[in-house]
Amino acid sequence: MTDPVSAASAANQSSGSAAATPTWRQRWQRVQGAALFAAVALVVIWAGLPQLPAAWGVQFGAPYLTFFSLAVAGAAGFFMLLNWGPIRPPRSALTTFASILFVYVATVGGMVAFGNWYYPQFETPKAGASSASGESAVEKRGKEVFLSPQFGCFACHTIEALGIRGGQRGPDLSSAGRQAEVRRRGVSAEDYLREAIVDPWACFTPLPASGLIECQAAVDAAKTYPQMMPPGAKERMSAQELSDLIAFLKNLRGAGERDAKRN
Ligand code: HEC
């Protein structure tokens, strides 16, 4: 018994594949659109996005840029593969299902994995995140204030030295205590930190790349962070919470120095 349809398609495939094998030039013509799109998009991502004015308040760090790049490379790669050569149809319902499942797991799974790695600021960091040894009771209470969702400091501030991976909109406070000593001439670290929290408009934190150390009297998009500190900390916090918080921040002196000081 001959099945005319499968016989015809078999003949078609064997003759077709030899005749239709594209040259490299043809292949390039098929994929060049996607390749050029990816090249342009990568230039925009790595050269354009970091140039956004700081005053807009949208700043993308390297992880974001990496994520955008992966998305672009993935999309371009997908279209390049589609156009590369004749697509063999799956041989059975099972392989069809398996390939859909594969694409789903690879894309959604990849995004979930990336999100888990990059978005800890959407969870409350664990209070035990630091090497808690040698922490005084005051510092411990201050850290709890810092980590409390009620005040949400970690939504904008990371303390890399303690492994507290918060947001990136404000400065990393890893050495906030040491820097507070020199931010404002003639003002103690403690007073500067108090002011930074209760009256953040009084003086603006310089961007690390600006090379400045002292805080600045006026916002300068090229030199200082945009002012985003939530107002009214004094009204929302008890005096005790505020002083614990200041004690905690005052002791942040960057990873190495803190250890060196204790030994
Ligand atoms: C909405 C984002 C945001 C939140 C929430 C936030 N901050 Fe800030 N913080 C910033 C930004 C932006 C700056 C830099 C601008 C400035 O204040 O000069 C800053 C600056 C600071 C500084 C000064 C650092 C320096 O080196 O001069 C301290 C200290 C500080 N924040 C502590 C806190 C504490 C404590 C909390 C929680 C009560 C908090 N921040 C909540 C965004 C935020």
Pick out its properties.
Cytochrome Bc1 Complex, Chain D, domain 2, binds heme C, 10 helices, 0% strand, disordered C terminus, 263 residues, mainly alpha
Report what the structure shows:
The protein has helices spanning 4-20, 24-48, 62-84, 93-118, 137-147, 176-183, 189-198, 233-236, 239-250, 255-262. By secondary structure, the protein is mostly helical. It folds into 2 domains: 23-85 and 99-118, no CATH class; 125-262, Cytochrome c-like domain (Cytochrome Bc1 Complex, Chain D, domain 2). The longest helix is centred in the middle third of the chain and has 26 residues, at 93-118. Bound molecules: heme C. Heme C binds at residues 146, 151-153, 155-157, 169-171, 176, 179, 183, 193, 196-197, 200, 204-205, 215, 225-230, 233, 245, 249.
- How far is the first residue's CA from the last residue's CA? 89 Å
Q: Tell me, what's the shape?
A: elongated
Bound molecules: heme C
Order of helices and strands, N to C?
Answer: HHHHHHHHHH
- Helix percent reads 40-55%
Report the mean per-residue pLDDT as an integer: 82
Q: What is the CATH architecture assignment of the largest domain?
A: Orthogonal Bundle
Low-confidence parts, pLDDT < 50 over ≥5 residues? 1-18, 256-263
Radius of gyration: 28 Å
Strand percentage, roughly? under 5%
Number of domains: 2
Biggest β-sheet, characterized?
A: none
CATH class of the largest domain: Mainly Alpha
Give the tally of β-strands.
0
